[in-house]
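Input chain follows. Return structure tokens only.
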Amino acid sequence: MIKLERVYRTYMMGGQPLHALNDVSETIEAGDYVAVMGPSGSGKSTLLNIMGCLDRPSSGSYRLEGQDVGALSDAELSQIRRHKLGFVFQTFHLVPRLSAAENVAFPMVFAGVPRAERLERVGVALEAVGLRQRAEHRPSELSGGECQRVAIARATVMRPRVLLADEPTGNLDSVAGRQVMEVIEHMNAEGLTLVVVTHDPAIASRAERVVVMADGRIERRVTGADLANRAPAIVVPEAAR
């Protein structure tokens, strides 16, 4: 499904090259549950942005479902983001003046989905995250965990093949964070490919497979179970970088 081969991403900062990704190769199959972890500046969010067609490699190739996305136009990439990929971020990015249902419906409006179908799909999406009864509440009337679950409903209402989550529990307490992870893990169990970026080993260890990054490179690959058992030997603490 996702195949990265020798991907580099270089930015110019103050006239000097900054190698955010350095010779990264990785394959993620349909239905996989993969965590990408590492300290700040390790390249994990840059990698997610490339997987999500929000950025392009400076060199190397990225194929999504066999298609070389590096050769696509901006309009074609927009269609891929709209129909194949879902995004969840640390900040919820909900529109404050809209209800939960209206926020979830937002991407379908831009995609031209008919109103009757939008209403049906919003109900299904909110039911999947346990918030159908909160459909008419605005973000200010919801807890942080509920806002993130609305964001997940919005990210999946277009029925993407892949859900990309960047620090999805970063703004949540442990209880709300666990609830959010359980929601997206249930979706993964039903076939949705899940990639979670985190610096938290407790979150990463929930995945089937963990890609550990440092200095723009993949440092090692471990199972979630291995990470849970050997985290102190594998993870560089955030404060150390």
